[in-house]
Design a protein that fits this description.
Structural class: alpha/beta
Strand order of the largest sheet: 22-23-1-24
Number of domains: 2
Radius of gyration: 21 Å
CATH architecture of the largest domain: Alpha-beta prism
Number of helices: 12
Number of strands: 24
Largest sheet: 4 strands, mixed
Length: 433
């Protein structure tokens, strides 16, 4: 799909989309607990749909209610098939693999798109320590695992992602693990671990003691999981919402609703960058209102724990007067694309100078952007980045393979269009409202 965006002025009010980080964790928690779970504000992204497919393959029954809520019934993790597919979800593959391994029979775990090229060798290293038989495609998908997982004291490397830790925590909780510790070195994205622990608590699962993010200790105390119905509301998404906030900051006169300023989501940190650059905004009861766009100043930001913010922050920096430095580039190599290079190249087409210096990205803003032919690289966040960069560029911008947004935010183009963005599809597909 090809999308064309003209220079536009935004105004109005928009509600941020549901968080796929919250939604996918809720799906996993609803599976491993026994009983009925009602999910309010469920996500509709491709990653969310993949999570629902996985939990159904692992025995959960999912029903869409007329009011839009999801009802999930589970008797625990009992696979009804010998294979699961996580789509293109990095969180899904890392989180669900330990949960899949709770089964005694061999199950094949696969994915699609860029997920097929991402390194998965940490499974080969850790799973045998937990009594799991595993084979992989030289450290990549597909995996074949045969459990059942045995909760034991282990140490894992958290430098690549915290998502594998999320899966282990949920699997240990499913087994009501006692007197056992998961130790972690070099843990990144700590706020996402906080989100996992909060979801576990919300679903009545056994929650380990967090010892300075270095050890997660499951005590020997008895824990009786609640069999009462659980109702959980999926948070609005700070990751997708960050693109709306940056678009509002550079355009002005826009209100973004639904983002919980007390959320544990890592990408809430976008607010620090918006404050640092001098955006005219006011926060009131989960509404973030932007006044008239004014001159923005360059900022310094550490995105090590929130690498998904690089694309929207790169656009924000483009419209700041001077050089912005964002740290954490080394976290970007194994995303849907090599995002550091992709940001440099795609925004470079629009006239922005972006330098990559070891773990830092230096963005030389303030000279304006020009419309260009860009490509999503099949990366949802790059597609959204190009779209918001286009709003104040000179001339039209074309985004190739623009449908990549469906991975996390399928109605993104419809949302910015509702705020006044001039968006057109160069084929017969429909913009989702």
């Amino acid at each position: 799909m090809q999308v064309t965006i003209q220079p536009s002025s935004l105004s109005g009010t928009i509600v941020a989309p549901a968080s796929k980080s919250s939604m996918q964790r809720a799906c996993a928690a609803a599976l491993v607990r026994k009983g009925k779970s009602i999910i309010h504000n469920p996500g509709i992204s491709n990653d969310d749909k993949a999570a629902l497919t996985v939990i159904q393959a692992l025995g959960a029954k999912v029903e869409q209610r007329n009011n839009g809520n999801l009802e999930i019934n589970s008797d625990g993790v009992y696979a009804v098939t010998d294979q699961v597919n996580n789509g293109e979800s990095g969180l899904g593959i890392r989180m669900f693999a330990p949960i899949v391994a709770l089964n005694e029979k061999e199950i094949s775990i696969n994915g699609e798109g860029s997920l097929l090229t991402r390194p998965m060798n940490f499974f080969d290293e850790i799973f045998p320590q937990l009594g799991i038989t595993i084979s992989s495609n030289n450290g990549r998908l597909p995996l074949k695992v045969k459990g059942p997982l045995q909760p034991r004291n282990i140490t894992i490397d958290g430098s690549l992602s915290s998502q594998f830790l999320t899966g282990l925590l949920l699997a240990y909780a499913a087994l009501n693990a006692s007197d056992v510790t998961i130790s972690v070195t070099n843990l990144k994205s700590k706020p996402y671990v906080d989100l996992t622990l909060k979801v576990m608590k919300d679903f009545g699962l056994k929650v380990p003691e967090n010892k300075q993010y270095e050890q997660f200790f499951f005590a020997a105390t008895a824990h009786e999981p609640s069999t009462a119905n659980i109702e959980y509301t999926v948070e609005s998404d700070w990751s997708g919402g960050a693109f709306l906030l940056v678009a509002a900051a550079i355009s002005g006169n826009t209100v973004v609703k639904g983002l919980d300023v007390n959320s544990t989501q890592a990408d809430k940190a976008v607010m620090k960058a918006l404050i640092a650059c001098g955006a005219d905004m006011c926060v009131d009861n989960n509404e973030i209102a932007f006044g008239k766009a004014t001159a923005l100043k360059p900022f310094s930001f550490d995105a090590t724990d929130c690498p998904d913010l690089f694309p929207p922050l790169a656009v924000l920096a483009a419209y700041c007067e001077g050089t912005t430095v964002i740290r954490g580039v080394l976290r970007l190599a194994h995303k849907e694309s090599d995002r550091g290079l992709t940001i440099q190249e795609e925004l470079g087409k629009m006239g922005l100078q972006v330098e990559l210096k070891a773990d830092e990205m230096h963005i030389h803003g303030g000279n304006g952007l020009k419309g260009a032919n860009t490509h999503s690289r099949h990366d949802h966040r790059i597609a959204m980045m190009c779209a918001i960069a286009a709003l104040k560029a000179q001339g039209e911008t074309v985004i190739e393979e623009a449908q990549a947004v469906a991975k996390s935010y399928p109605n993104f183009y419809g949302h910015i269009q509702s705020l006044g963005a001039i968006v057109s599809l160069n084929n017969k597909e429909t913009i989702h409202e």
